[in-house]
Design brief:
Elements: H1 3-17, H2 20-29, H3 31-37, H4 47-55, H5 58-79, E1 85-93, E2 100-111, H6 116-182, H7 188-223, H8 245-253, H9 256-275, E3 282-294, E4 297-309, H10 317-364, H11 366-382, H12 388-423
Antiparallel strand pairs: 1-2, 2-3, 3-4
Length: 429
């Protein structure tokens, strides 16, 4: 075979084995957009849908409703009047003319003339409101937990897509290296090196798939739905920019956690006011029917009487002191929690803003540059200007950049979820 024929044959073989790079270049050019936007192609479950499904579980509804029912029962107790007392007396005495029998049926009804009952009702009503606020705070925390679970699963879904794409490229390059090795154009070391890279990519893919399966089961368990209804997920990792700081701080002041402390402090204040009225005597109204029987005569009569409880010793001093102390403790806790939460909110807001900007900038700049690096490495390898190892390095650099972008986006989303929990927002998308 002439030298020209040999060179032409090698050129044709090189062209045949490197055609897959054309498909790789096209696939690479749409990698970032596919990782971010492919999930929107099908009507699948979103963050809002997942949270709604989890909160609609009968167990969660029963938990929330049971707390309020308990507080409502205390309110009902405070609204009920004291039970009347029914008593019967029979007095039989002897007399010269015969035995004299007196039968008395008496009903005694305590009445509140001090206004304490209305104050206890007010305290019970405030506790009902406190329980409602605490339930709202629990639901806010539960929503944040569910959103974190969804965000981690969404991150894993995108990471799995990136690993699959990386593994496909490595396998394609390994096939090309095999063809070139048979043509004598690739050294044994390069062939072994790409085979090791392919095994590593396959192992990484297996780990990513296992973690995704576990997260799908966690989502399904939280929402009480079959696992197949969980994936693929819908949404983007990078959240919107946080709202202005003053708006966030205003939301903190009306948070249910702080409002519930204030409501309970007011309830103890009402109870202290009720205890301060314990010096007012307790009044009871008595209504009785009396029947007197003696030989040859029987008389009936009605007795109306009043009785007072004299507060000589117990004038509510202990109850008043206890209620006032509890109110002071709760109001102090309210002020401390408000100051700490406002300071924490400023830190979380700054973190969320910084991570949002960093994730957006990295996606726009660094990710695009690593994409260009891979394209350049492929073109140089096709032209025989770089080695297979340099191409593998470019692929790994792009995979590392994608991993960094996804991790940075996840951190930005988690910081935004924490910020939303603190100031009362539910979703940011």
């Amino acid at each position: 075979m002439s030298e020209i024929s040999r060179l032409n044959g090698e050129r044709d073989a090189r062209s045949r084995v490197r055609r897959p790079f054309a498909r790789l270049a096209f696939t690479t050019s749409v990698l970032v957009s596919s990782l971010i936007g492919a999930a929107y192609a099908a009507p699948v479950e979103s963050e809002a849908g997942f949270v709604e499904a989890a909160l609609a579980r009968p167990e969660w509804q029963a938990l929330q409703g049971g707390r309020e029912e308990g507080a409502q029962s205390e309110l009902l107790r405070s609204q009920l009047l004291a039970n009347p007392t029914l008593s019967f007396e029979r007095d039989r005495t002897g007399a010269p003319s015969g035995d004299v029998t007196e039968n008395t049926v008496r009903i005694s009804q305590p009445l509140d003339i001090s206004g304490r009952r209305s104050l206890y009702q007010s305290a019970a009503q405030r506790r009902v409101e406190a329980v409602r606020l605490e339930s709202a705070a629990d639901q806010r925390s539960r929503i944040a937990e569910l959103r974190i679970l969804f965000a981690e699963a969404l991150h894993q879904q995108y990471y799995l897509g990136a690993v699959r794409h990386w593994q496909e490229r490595i396998e394609s390059a390994a096939r090309i290296a095999g063809h070139l090795a048979r043509a004598g154009e690739v050294s044994g070391y390069e062939q072994k090196r790409i085979e090791q890279e392919a095994k590593k990519a396959s192992a990484t893919l297996a780990l990513a798939e296992a973690r995704q399966r576990r997260q799908r089961e966690s989502l399904a368990a939280a929402a009480a739905i079959p696992p197949e209804q969980v994936a693929p997920l819908v949404g983007t990792l990078v959240p919107d920019a946080p709202p202005p700081l003053d708006r966030v701080q205003d939301g903190v002041q009306t948070s249910p956690e702080l409002a519930s402390m204030q409501a309970r402090a007011d309830a103890f204040g009402d109870e202290a006011a009720a205890a301060s009225r314990a010096w007012i005597p307790g009044l009871s109204v008595d209504l009785a029917h009396k029947q007197v029987r003696e030989p040859g005569r029987s008389d009936n009569g009605v007795i109306v009487g009043l009785s007072l409880t004299l507060p000589l010793f117990d004038r509510g001093q202990a109850d008043q002191a206890m209620s006032r102390a509890q109110a002071r403790v709760l109001r102090a806790q309210h002020q401390l929690s408000l100051a700490e939460t406002q300071a924490n909110v400023r830190g979380v807001w700054q973190e969320a803003m910084s991570l949002h900007e960093a994730a957006s900038t990295y996606r726009k700049d660094a990710l695009a540059s690593t994409q260009q690096l891979s394209d350049t490495a492929e073109a140089a390898y096709r032209a025989g200007e770089s080695s297979l190892l340099e191409l593998l390095d470019a692929y790994r650099a792009e995979m590392d950049a994608l991993t960094t972008e996804l991790d940075l986006s996840l951190r930005a989303r988690l910081a935004r979820i924490e910020l939303d929990r603190l100031y009362g927002a539910t979703f940011n998308e």
